[in-house]
Fold:
Amino acid sequence: MSKEKKDVLYGLYDDEEILLKAVDQANAGHLDIMDVFTPFPVHGLDPKLGLAESRLHIAGFVYGAIGTLTAFLFMTWVFTRDWPIIFGGKPYWSVPAFIPITFEVTVLFAAIGMVVSFYTVCGMAPGITNPTLDDRITDDKFCIAFDVTSADDAAKNQLKGFFSQSGASEVNTKTI
Amino acid sequence: MSAVVSPIREPLIEGGKSYHQITEDICSPTERTPSVAWVMAFIVAVSALAFYVFCVGWTIWIGIGSWNLNRTIGWGWDITNFVWWVGIGHAGTLISAILLLFRQKWRTGVNRAAEAMTIFAVMCAGQFPLIHMGRLWLGFFIFPYPNTRGPLWVNFNSPLLWDVFAISTYFTVSLLFWYTGLVPDFATVRDRAKGIRRKIYNFLSFGWTGSAKHWQRFESLSLVLAGLATPLVLSVHTIVSFDFATSVIPGWHTTIFPPYFVAGAIFSGFAMVQTLMVMTRKVLKLEQYITLAHIESMNKVILVTGTIVGVAYLTELFIAWYSGYIYEQFAFANRVLGPYWWSYVGMMSCNVLSPQIFWWKKMRRSIFVTFVMSIFVNIGMWFERFVIIATTLARDYLPSSWSYYTPTWVEIGLFIGTLGLFFTLYLIFARTAPVVAVAEVKAILKTAGDQYVGPGAKAHGTSKEAKVHE
Structure:
């Protein structure tokens, strides 16, 4: 994803409860929040930001189903078509004996698939550097960010007014 | 915070912490120069690891003949160690997955280290079947890959192959689960670091920013991985027990094995977590995050699972008698009174009798008792596997082939060596990664910290600063 540089105006809050109230205030003032950054998952934030539920679990189900079919059909093919052998007088297609491996492969596919999907959709990978606004966001600061690349001074002042009103402890701009 | 917490619960984070203080307390051990205690421990661990490498080399050079296994007793210390380590590797995922689903907040203090321990224990476990093959370089034969021998496939009906899938899946899923949890915390360390350290942690943190949408996906991922890992962790030791239970050896061929093995695995895993936590919290000064409440909770799990295991031992004996089947009766009489009676005594006293001390709250909350008990349980669970494997094999169908087995120095060296591998990895982990899940602890601070001042707050005697609210 090649992105153009953006000017970001952001405010830092000291506590998630102040942040949640600030987000409410921003919503009431019809301010267009670019993103919110927090040191840990803040519950109750997603609906306020209008974030739809993650579809990752649906992907997980699909990966798992692929795993189930892969394992089961492969074992079926090996023991009924490719190289049938009788083990202990059991039928070639001895389904109960396939259960453990089918289960394990289901879990394996679902887990690997979901983790890879997670990092891909988040734009994360080993060695990637995504621009961050402030080092303290992973520590104890809660950040609301606005994209002000094309905003005029009046709009910026309105946002600054919002920050001081909603209890931000710091307001900065950064080009990322 | 929307979660409801009983106000009468003990705080899980003591000392009136602020968010910044949590970061400081947990991340700073990775930033200091190592302490003398750490260096000493590391030297010991690496020496044991070096001896391990030597013993593996010896085994491969001389062959499995350097062990004392014989035609009657084909599984000895090797498989005992394998099952022991796999069992230990169960606590981490249990704590992080099952307790996540049950919304047990005390898991946040110990899950990171327990998961790390799980991964290292499974690595140790995996060594033994591989070495036992003798021709280590042909180890990849256990995987079904297209080959020029037919292709000839592996036997998908064999519990030994189920084990290959179970252990490798368990290792992979545990690793992914653990590392994904570490990513936001590595970002925290990254944002505190400078220079080369910053570059390293930047690499490890995958470009984490803490965006709201990322957190949402992160939580969704954690929940589903926990949902997957829960049946997985139960399946792994079930399948390990199938290695025995699907055989036709009296003493192994019992339907009680899967639940009995799983309970035993949780039991031994928690014991190892206790061994490590008691030391880690002291050395890294994390007593306010891994509190007595955590230790007590884990001791309760040890008491319950130890008692389940005890019931299983007695059930086995009863069913053997009640079956009226003389071979089964003999197998169990031999287990208790035969040539390995001492290992049965060791198992019973360490696993069943000694954990009963945890009925007393005072004992559950004593660090010293906890530590001693955790060592007892580790020993007892090793004996359990030895009892199941060696004593059963020693007296097989033909009295003329009955045998006795004592390990050689190579086998003992391999066991001590895997302890070296385990502790080397754990010590490196404790120096380089946040040992407690920073973000998760912050997320429960408001509801489970001792500065909780919400409705119905209990005045806690543990901290004088309890009412200081940032």
About this structure: Chain A has two domains: 7-52+129-175, 56-121. Chain A touches chain B through 68 residues (CB under 8 Å). The radius of gyration of chain A is 25 Å. The longest helix of chain A spans residues 56-82.
